[in-house]
From TrEMBL:
Residues 10-258 form the Carbohydrate kinase FGGY N-terminal domain. This is Carbohydrate kinase FGGY N-terminal domain-containing protein. Keywords: Kinase, Transferase. One of its GO terms (molecular function) is sedoheptulokinase activity.
């Protein structure tokens, strides 16, 4: 492959969100974003399991490939590092060594999923309160909730054990992408993502293996935990022009990354409104969270970087409310037979939708949902 004459070097940043994928190229010298692209994944799937919330990895990876392909080829050839973040808590399963296929499509070298499960997202509600109360108490300061990776695996252990037997490893969707890019046989998971799964002690940086084994939990599926900010490996193949052997960092939590991107100093507080919403601030150096969960506390402590913690007050309502509102309006318009609501893209810093007159005589652009607040 002929290398580009572009003398600049770039870092590729990827975020695999609940509703969209965002990518950026950052110039390593100026530290400025030179290119960016965003697309909705439209990956939600129907499911016969009550309260289940799943997404199709094939649609997610297809959207990722389309986003990468939209960036300038000469710049992609000069990418020197790749950083990945994504939606936390969720879990998907795959078979080591056969979790994806590499090949050429549309004049680009890429991978696509093979022998994987659906992504069970953080919005999954199949674990009832009664089910959660039947689980062992974790050795962690964080409670276990429905939608958390370990809780979801416990649910399958009870209700679909044959499903778990099909796979050899598990991780979040962004852990999966890193594992496929690097050709890893074993999933590596940052402490940020591990803590979001439950049954992970952030002080010892270890899974609660004894507790899980005593409950029959398939610990073989657990990823190997690594420090947040370290590298997971090198790309095993050229990818959309990005050279083989490019360093890839272990996937990080989208929440921690959103705070890191705008926290100007340690005394700042950050309000992040995305699919959900969180108000957070950094705890002092040396802070240690409580030894046991405090389920009724309005504040939780999430691992950040370099052994520090963020104090977080979270809400389940955020951009998901706006998305539901838009879907409702679209359904009303179609029922009235007047307008059809179509995704257009971004206008400035806002997501844009088009109310198209069914007579095709005009299209009114309506912008809503801040880009930076859209998972």
């Amino acid at each position: 492959m002929a290398m580009s004459s572009n003398s600049h070097k770039y870092v590729l940043g990827i975020d695999l969100g609940t509703t969209s994928i965002k990518i950026v190229l950052v110039d390593t010298q100026s530290k400025k974003v030179t290119d960016s692209y965003t697309l909705p994944t439209k990956a939600d799937t129907s499911n016969t399991v009550e309260h289940a919330k799943e997404q199709d990895p094939e649609r997610i990876i297809d959207t990722l490939n389309r986003c990468i392909a939209a960036l300038p080829r000469d710049k992609l050839q000069n990418v020197t590092k790749i950083g990945v973040s994504g939606q936390m808590h969720g879990v998907m399963f795959w078979k080591a060594r056969t979790g994806c296929s590499w090949g050429s499509r549309d004049s680009a070298h890429m991978f696509w999923p093979r022998e994987t499960s659906q992504l069970i997202t953080w919005q999954d509600r199949r674990c009832s309160s009664d089910f959660l109360s039947s689980l062992p108490q974790p050795d962690s300061h964080l409670s276990v909730a429905t939608g958390f990776g370990c809780a979801t695996i416990f649910w399958h252990l009870k209700n679909r054990p044959e499903f778990l037997a099909e796979f050899t490893t598990a991780g979040t969707i962004h852990d999966y992408v890193v594992a496929m890019l690097c050709g890893l046989d074993k999933c590596l998971m940052s402490t940020q993502n591990a803590a979001s799964w439950g049954y992970f002690n952030t002080s010892s940086h270890q899974w609660n293996l004894d507790i899980l084994k005593d409950s029959g939990f398939p610990v073989r599926l657990l990823p190997d935990a690594v420090k947040s900010g370290c590298y997971a490996g090198l790309t095993c193949s050229e990818w959309h022009g990005i050279p083989s052997q490019t360093p890839v960092a272990a996937a990080l939590g989208d929440f921690q990354c959103s705070v890191y991107s705008c926290m100007t100093d340690r005394t700042s507080a950050v309000l992040n409104i995305s699919t959900s919403a969180q108000l957070s601030f950094a705890m002092p150096d040396g802070f240690k969270p409580p030894a046991t969960p405090e389920p009724y506390s309005p504040v939780s402590y999430f691992p950040y970087f370099d052994g520090s913690y963020l104090a977080v007050a979270a809400s389940l309502n955020g951009g998901n409310v706006m998305a539901t509102f838009v879907e409702m309006l679209s359904a009303w318009m179609k029922e009235l037979g007047k307008y059809d609501l179509k995704w257009v893209g971004y206008v400035g810093d806002k997501a844009a939708y088009c109310y198209r007159d069914l007579s095709n005589r005009h299209c009114l652009i309506v912008s809503c949902i801040l880009r930076n607040g859209c998972r």
